[in-house]
Amino acid sequence: MTTGKPYVIGIDMGGTNTVFGIVDARGVVIASNSIKTRKHNKIEDYIDELYNETMRLVESADAKDKIYGIGVGAPNANYFTGVIEDGVNLPWPTPIPFAQMLSDKFGIPVAITNDANAAAIGEMTYGVARGLKDFIMITLGTGVGSGIVINGQVVYGHDGFAGELGHVIVKRNNGRLCGCGRTGCLETYCSATGVARTAREYLEITDTPSLLREIPISEITSKDVYDAAMKGDKLAKEVFNYTGTILGEALADFTVFSAPEAFVLFGGLAKAGDLLLKPIKEALEKNMLSIWKGKVKVLLSELKEADAAVLGASALGWEAKPLTEAQA
Amino acid sequence: MTTGKPYVIGIDMGGTNTVFGIVDARGVVIASNSIKTRKHNKIEDYIDELYNETMRLVESADAKDKIYGIGVGAPNANYFTGVIEDGVNLPWPTPIPFAQMLSDKFGIPVAITNDANAAAIGEMTYGVARGLKDFIMITLGTGVGSGIVINGQVVYGHDGFAGELGHVIVKRNNGRLCGCGRTGCLETYCSATGVARTAREYLEITDTPSLLREIPISEITSKDVYDAAMKGDKLAKEVFNYTGTILGEALADFTVFSAPEAFVLFGGLAKAGDLLLKPIKEALEKNMLSIWKGKVKVLLSELKEADAAVLGASALGWEAKPLTEAQA
Fold first, then answer.
1. Chain B contacts in chain A segment 250-269 (CB below 8 A)
2. CA-closest candidate to residue B138, choices B11, B312, B262
3. Phi, psi of B215 (to 5 degrees)
4. Residue B246 C-alpha from the chain's centroid
5. CA distances from residue B232 to A154, B164, B217, B268 in whole angstroms, order as listed
6. Rounded CA separation B276/B272 (Å)
7. Which of A79, A128, A280, B225 is buried most, with the most CB atoms less than 10 Å from its CB?
8. How far is it, in rounded angstroms, from Cα B113 to Cα B160?
9. From the centroid of its chain, how far is CA A193?
10. pLDDT tens-digit profile of A167-223?
């Protein structure tokens, strides 16, 4: 970082939007914008638009030749190889050597990791996890992702894919079908999608009156369940209790692995606040091995959702190095 | 390690025996011996005997003033504080500031960790995990312990107690009562004790003929089940299938956490070999998230049981530093 270049670019590639920003060394996003991820059928065209829009931002911020590196958070992105290996939610064939392609286009070093790891880095650098060396970021969005930090380092594992806690099996038998092809994964219960599934199940198998019965059942979202719960709807509150209990049980199991100081919850569902936090904390303590009872915090992310991903990705930009031949 | 002192002492404190040895820098145990852990009602008397017997060994090996440090593997030993915090299987009140007490007695630096972490270090330094930077040691003894290695480093967590994988809940409801006070822990099924419990259950709830019916039911051990299985006993083989399946399912879940290159099985039950390995590998592959199918090895420890613990503990001896006031 003695290059004198004061900025990095952070790029958060989501299934729908790609958000990018120019970030300074203190974590201030000095400019940001977004493009639609799915607009282009060819990855090359997507990269062209991303390059053009990013450079427009760079020029308007007078940051040309002042960019140290680019950090990217993307689904199934491999930190070690720079490759997006399997993009279930992306419109292009995989694997995509994304770091190399972006580095070729921009002419500066690029580092990539998955979106949950990027969020963890963002939280550690600028958010509620500042000063924590051991914590686990749990992202509660369409799916459940995770970024595991041990001794100040993100855990990548031997192949770059560690930290898929959304795919721990929480129901061994008769569990819900997951997008991964297996059944009973945590994310089928504790994602935004999982909350909607639980609400639909409850509406079908009970006669409990509920505000949610006014909505066509196939259209119910986690936001609808949240809104109903905030109005005191009993069934909707039970849905959050069920969701939080399963997540709290899972967090107790995760604790025995890396003994984190805290779990940090992030993403759309984390906005449910106490509706979700209360049953999580109750189940966590109830199921915790005695040596950790009362010792592990559950925190809510302090960063705005878009910012966290861009900031996290950008922090990775400071680590970016030119890819070696072997990696390319 | 430029002190010119060529040896370390490794001490493995088990619930029954305490084994200790003098080890050189290449991992050769040049002398070893053992004492009974439970012989003394006072920890001070135990340390006196341990000191006397160790020094006798040191003198006979002409190693006086040549010991760099002492490494200890002990139940619930905290690497950070040097304290044995909760010794369920030990005869003395806890917490015990063991590293400090031993360091005071011997006059050389002492480092301690739990027995499973010590075994992992031993395996990484001298055994089948040489060259692996990401692996998980699973110790299958009276209980189930684990030592998690990520990027070449043992995971201690924020408080020094990480890696209690024997206490992941594998049966959420109606699970077996565990020594930890909870129910459904992995170690109630997949330890030597768990195998004996499963055999007793099978004998009680089925009429399947079995060699094990010749043994008083309360006296059946995992060794008996192994012997019967090796003679082709159907019920005994089913017990190993059940045990291995539960362990394989759990290992698939552990994989999503740290993406290890291998699991290394260690301890009495690991000697069952293919009886256990086959169902483990089948369940692991069947339950594995697709990105890791066929990629994670299950290996058996290559070290003799006593040696592994002493060697692992001794390797920690090279890291031993005088305890600070804060830790004491």
1. 252-254, 256-261
2. B262
3. -105, 135
4. 19
5. 48, 34, 19, 20
6. 6
7. B225
8. 8
9. 15
10. 999 999 999 999 999 999 999 999 999 999 999 999 999 999 999 999 999 999 999
Burial B122-147 (b: 16+ CB within 10 A, else e): bbbbbbbbeebebbbbbbbbbbbbbb
Q: What is the mean pLDDT of each run of 10 residues along chain B (328 residues)?
A: 78 90 90 94 96 96 94 91 83 93 96 91 89 96 94 95 96 94 97 97 97 96 97 98 98 98 93 95 97 96 78 88 52
pLDDT tens, residue by residue, B230-256: 999 999 999 999 999 999 999 999 999
Tokens 């292009």 belong to residue: A92
What letter represents residue B91's amino acid? P
The minimum CA-CA distance between B124 and chain A, rounded to whole Å, is 15
So what's the ipTM on this one? 0.90
Cβ–Cβ of B257/A148 closer than 8 Å? yes
Cβ-Cβ contacts under 8 Å, B172 against chain A: 170, 249
Q: Which of A49, A51, A55, A54 lies closest to A37, judged by CA? A: A49
If you measure CA to CA, which chain B residue comes closest to A155?
A: B258
Neighbours of B181 (CB within 10 A): 9
| Tokens 């909350």 belong to residue | A195
Residue recorded with tokens 């459940």 = A144
Q: Which two tokens stand for residue A176?
A: 């819900």
Whether A21 and A15 have beta carbons less than 8 Å apart is answered as no
- The strand pairing partners of B146, in sequence order, are B138
Hey, what's the torsion of the CAs at A222, A167, A305, A294, to 10 degrees? 90
Q: Which residues lie closer than 8 Å to A189 by C-beta, 6 or more apart?
A: A170, A171, A176, A197, A198, A242, A243, A246, A247
Q: Which amino acid is located at B319 in the chain? A: E
Nearest-by-CA chain A residue for B159: A259
| Least CB–CB distance from A157: residue in B169, B259, B290 | B259
Task: Using the predicted structure, report yes or no on whether residue A159 has a pLDDT greater than 90.
Answer: yes
Q: How far apart are CA B10 and CA A129, in angstroms?
A: 38
A291 vs B: CB within 8 A? yes
CB B121 within 8 A of CB B315: yes
